[in-house]
Amino acid sequence: MKNYIFEKSVALANVDRTQIVVVTVPNLEGDTIENYATNLFRRFGIGDAEKNNGLLLLLALEERQFRVEVGYGLEGILPDGKTGRFQDQYMIPYFRNNDWDMGMKNGYDAFYAEIVKLNNLDISYRNPNVVENSFNDSFEISSFLLFLLFISVTISAIAGYTIKKVKN
């Protein structure tokens, strides 16, 4: 699933500079999901700085909480009501059954499709590994860094969850 999300996100970012980041953590370390998501969003600068078009999908396993953080540049096409409907329809039924991967993939696909449709983007023919201009050279590096962030957060989450299980 990581490659699937990464490749689609890079393709989207190469066309529109929109960044979708998926993060799963073992727990919120005593914080609220709202604060945790906002801090992640700001710390990693998700989305283009000028367009403010980032989207964070955050899942906290221990607390069984999910949060969507939307940059101001996407709020017109992803208002709270729509993000809530997407969660209810595409994600929560799977999360209730502990099918985290399918819930995240379905939700990701719904948000991705909505961004592509409402921004009238044509990304079907683009290869995310092909750099099309000088802007994409620097953006490909940013995308790679986001991918590394995703991997490191996932590894940290798994390690933290495993350590906590061992201590208990």
How would you portray this structure in words?
With 168 residues, the chain is mostly helical. Helices cover 58% and strands 12% of the residues. The protein is built from five helices and three strands, in the order αβαββααα. Strands 1-2-3 form a three-stranded mixed sheet, with helices on both faces. Helix 2 links the parallel strand 1 and strand 2. It starts with a helix and ends with a helix.
Helix content: 55-70%
Total number of strands: 3
Q: In order across it, which strands form the biggest sheet?
A: 1-2-3
Structural class category: mainly alpha
Overall spatial form:
globular
Oligomerization:
single chain
Continuous helix count: 5
State Rg: 16 Å
- Poorly predicted residue ranges: 125-141
Distance between the termini: 30 Å
Mean pLDDT: 82
Largest sheet: 3 strands, mixed
User: What is the string of helix and strand elements?
Assistant: HEHEEHHH
β-sheet strand percentage: 5-15%
Question: Nutshell version of this structure?
Answer:
This protein has 168 residues and is mainly α.
